[in-house]
């Protein structure tokens, strides 16, 4: 039976939410919804969808690294966006985050996230070693 491992980058702010930032079971990694918090817990890019989405993908990258996975190993993402009129800015950041392997993706409109300053949240599923490397 595969071992279950909690993945938590060394972000001081994360412990107050009492969730694992990711969970690895065997070669599969489940990344919790990530928002545009920097490592100190400050919101990055207030009112800037592109900047927030870029930070979100950096946070996903950090969680994956805890398991030895990369963005190339991501097979599925789900994005929650508070303003669909800014979707194009999110899509640019998503394309930059996944230049080699395009994951399956869903985008959901939502009225708000955990803070009114946050515009986007993304969760991910990865299979370690599944991505072709550039």
List the SSEs and their pairings:
Elements lengths: L3 E4 L14 E4 L2 E7 L14 H18 L7 E8 L5 H11 L6 E6 L10 E8 L7
Helix pairs in contact: 1-2
Description:
The longest helix is centred in the middle third of the chain and has 18 residues. It is built from two helices and six strands, in the order βββαβαββ. The protein has one domain: RutC-like (60s Ribosomal Protein L30, Chain: A), CATH 3.30.1330. Helices cover 22% and strands 28% of the residues. Helix 1 packs parallel to helix 2. It is of the alpha+beta class and 134 residues long. Strand 2 and strand 3 form a beta hairpin. It has a six-stranded mixed sheet with strand order 1-2-3-6-4-5, with helices on one face.
Question: Can you summarize this structure?
Answer:
This protein has 134 residues and is of the alpha+beta class. The protein has helices at residues 49-66, 87-97, and strands spanning 4-7, 22-25, 28-34, 74-81, 104-109, 120-127.
Gyration radius (Cα, Å) is: 14 Å
Q: Say how many strands there are.
A: 6
> Secondary-structure element sequence?
EEEHEHEE
Number of domains: 1
CATH superfamily: RutC-like
- The count of helical stretches stands at 2
Just give the CATH class. Answer: Alpha Beta
Q: State the shape.
A: globular
Largest sheet: 6 strands, mixed
Helix content: 10-25%
pLDDT average, as an integer?
Answer: 96
Which structural class best describes the helix and strand composition? alpha+beta
Q: Spans of 5+ residues with little confidence (pLDDT < 50)?
A: none
User: Strands of the largest sheet, in order across it?
Assistant: 1-2-3-6-4-5
**CATH architecture classification:** 2-Layer Sandwich
- Spatial separation of the terminal alpha carbons: 32 Å
Range of strand content: 25-35%
């Amino acid at each position: 039976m595969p071992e279950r491992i909690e993945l938590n980058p060394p972000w001081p702010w994360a412990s107050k939410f009492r969730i694992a930032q990711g969970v690895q079971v065997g070669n599969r990694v489940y990344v919790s919804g990530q928002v545009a918090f920097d490592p100190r817990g400050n919101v990055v890019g207030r009112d800037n969808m592109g900047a927030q989405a870029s930070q979100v993908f950096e946070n996903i990258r950090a969680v994956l690294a805890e398991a030895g996975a990369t963005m190339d190993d991501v097979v599925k993402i789900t994005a929650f966006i508070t303003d669909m009129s800014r979707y194009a800015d999110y899509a640019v950041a998503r394309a930059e985050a996944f230049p080699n392997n395009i994951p399956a993706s869903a985008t959901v409109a939502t009225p708000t996230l955990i803070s009114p300053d946050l515009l986007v949240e993304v969760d991910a599923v990865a299979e370690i070693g599944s991505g072709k490397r550039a």
